[in-house]
Amino acid sequence: MIEVVDLAKRFPMKGERGKFVEAVREVTFTAPDGAITGLLGPNGAGKTTTLRMIATLVEPTRGTARVDGLDGHLKPNEVRSRMGVLSDARGLYGRLTARENIAYYGALRGLPSAQVQAMIGRLAEWLDMGPMLDRRTDGFSQGERMKVAIARALVHDPPNVILDEPTNGLDVMTTRKLREVVRRLREGGKCVLFSSHIMQEVSALCDSIVIVARGRVVASGTAAELLASSGRDNLEDAFVHLSGETEAA
Amino acid sequence: MRAAITVFLKEITDALRDRRTALMVLIASILTGPITLVLVAQFVSGLEEKASILKVRISGQEHAPALVNFLQRNDVEIEPAPKDYETLVREGRLDAVIVVPPDFDSRWLTGDGAKVEIFYDDSRTDAGPAIRQAERLLRAFNRETGMLRLVARGVSPDLVEPVKVDHVNTATPRQKGAFLLFLIPMFAILSPLLGGMTLAIDSTAGERERGSLEPLLANPVPIGQLVVGKWLAAWIFASVVAVLTLGGFVIAASLYAGKRLAALMAFGAPEFAAFVAVVVPFAAMTSALQMLICTYGRSYREAQTYVSYLATVVSFVPVIVLFTGMKDSLWQLAVPVLAQQVVLGRVIRGDTIAPVDWLMPSLMAFVLAAVFVALVARLLRDERIVFGRA
């Protein structure tokens, strides 16, 4: 379970002393186990920074992010071991094979090699990546790279999974495969936190949606609840309406 | 330590798979020694050849029968200078020419300040022996003539030469060779920089540019362990390249065994062992420093630029030592690069090496390596370095 309370982050502005960029102003939400929570927002809304703070990669300026009750600020390594992160940057080592890329992270997490290989087998089946496992990744297509990056993030079978815009640049087939994997994770009782700027993506997949705009949570709930609260009859209008409100404010 | 070993093994595998770079570095390092020594040997033997055959070029020898007579008595081969000797000297095709003016003989006979010119270009170092030889022969001719004239007037020649100077050169052939072989210490110092470079860049700036740094840092592994693993890999590569480079010198030097140059090229197993003992700790420091400056690099290319600046700075140190004629003293042992240069210079001159000569530079190198590794780890904890500079 991921609980985020009043999270905020500001960065010093490049080239200008004493000025700051408020990347995240006030984000509060809870992503329960056995459910898919969608973080929806336009580009630059602060989704990636929020996810980085949850993943303990960035120190919050204010507020706390707790994973399974553990404060990431106080116990970063415990939090990291309970979490699988597909981050914004998802580069692979081109001279290593897909299997080696995934196994590297398994070994870094101290898992026995047999367990890692078994997990790679399972993930390869889920993601349909059997034939490419023992090829070097430098010739991979974007979809193939994404599959490896996802497998790498899940190699330790983490109870919490963060996926930062996982469908960016993917074709329909790969996107479908990915949705399947995300649903499987939910069935396995995991807490899945999924960010996207694409409405359909989130409404098709998520149990509850948190809409973020300009660093703030502007609405949250199920798709039906969001429709009701915005008074619109489709989610896209609701999204535009809800995130537009802050722009006026 | 487990995670550090995992990182270390991954970095080594990754670097070895970069076949083209690895091969280039290996071939370059193995060939450095032989190529350098062959060139040096050519140069040295050229010098010796020039000095050993007594030969002068004279323009206008017909004006100086007495000089010609003196030279012939001393087994000097006289060659008339070609007409266009001035141009030839300027172009570097002739080393030195003794020019005798037409009025030489008449002035010489009357004892009226006879003059000759030596025509040369001393900006060319390889002309040096020929110039000195011409000077020496003319001086000897002067002395002989002067003495004969004094004796003819009943004066003892000892009056004009109250002190007799005999040359006793204490430089052993090996020490003469060390002047030229300051190159081996220089290559020994530069080789770990070459060897550790690719890995240092790839595992820091390259990791960020590739977008694999962020996911790597999301693992529950202390950053210190990640950095130590990367540094160990860079250190091993740097050391291997250094050992190969020095091995190349050993092989090349052994090719000259038994020849006249063998004495100059004394670089055998004991020297090799001493060099390795000095260079491997040094490599620990250079690879850590390379990683540190590469972590600052915004991109792979920028890191490459920084690393080549570092190599330039380091390669200046031997040159400074050579040109300032710095005397050995203890403080130098505490200054990285300079210390290695000084100690390796001693090894190659065949001087004795005290334990402190090895201990002090190596200790310094390891302390600095630890500091640099700690600084890299600190930089990687900085959000601005990890995210803000892509």
Q: Any overview of this molecule?
A:
The complex is a heterodimer of chains A (249) and B (390). With 249 residues, chain A is of the alpha/beta class. Chain A is 39% helix and 26% strand. Chain A contains nine helices and ten strands. In chain A, the strands form two sheets. A six-stranded mixed beta sheet of chain A has the order 6-7-8-3-9-10, sandwiched between helices. In chain A, strands 2-1-4-5 form a four-stranded antiparallel beta sheet. The longest helix of chain A is centred in the last third of the chain and has 16 residues, at 172-187. Chain B has helices at residues 2-17, 19-52, 65-73, 85-91, 104-110, 128-152, 173-180, 183-202, 205-210, 213-217, 223-255, 269-296, 300-324, 338-349, 355-380, 383-386; strands at 55-59, 77-80, 96-99, 117-120. The radius of gyration of chain B is 30 Å and the shape is elongated. Chain B contains 16 helices and four strands. In chain B, 38% of the residues are buried. With 390 residues, chain B is mainly α. A four-stranded mixed beta sheet of chain B has the order 2-1-3-4, sandwiched between helices. In chain B, helix 1 packs across helix 11 (223-255) and helix 11 (223-255) packs antiparallel against helix 15. Chain A binds chain B through residues 11-12, 14, 52, 55-59, 76-78, 80-81, 83, 85-96, 100, 104-105, 107-110, 136, 149, 152-153, and chain B through 2-3, 6-7, 10, 13-14, 17-18, 207, 210-222, 383-384, 386-388, 390.
Q: Please give the largest β-sheet of chain B.
A: 4 strands, mixed
- Secondary structure tally, helices of chain B: 16
Number of helices of chain A: 9
Adjacency order of strands in the biggest sheet of chain B:
2-1-3-4
Mean model confidence by pLDDT of chain A: 90
Q: Give the quaternary arrangement of the chains.
A: heterodimer
Task: From the alpha carbons, calculate the radius of gyration of chain B and give it in angstroms.
Answer: 30 Å
Residue runs with pLDDT of under 50 for 5 or more positions of chain B: none
Mean pLDDT of chain B: 84
Order of helices and strands of chain A: EEEHEEHEHHHEHEHEEHH
Describe the strand arrangement of the main beta sheet of chain A, using strand numbers: 6-7-8-3-9-10
Helices and strands of chain A: which structural class?
A: alpha/beta
Strand content of chain A: 25-35%
Order of helices and strands of chain B: HHEHEHEHEHHHHHHHHHHH
Shape of chain B: elongated
Gross morphology of chain A is globular
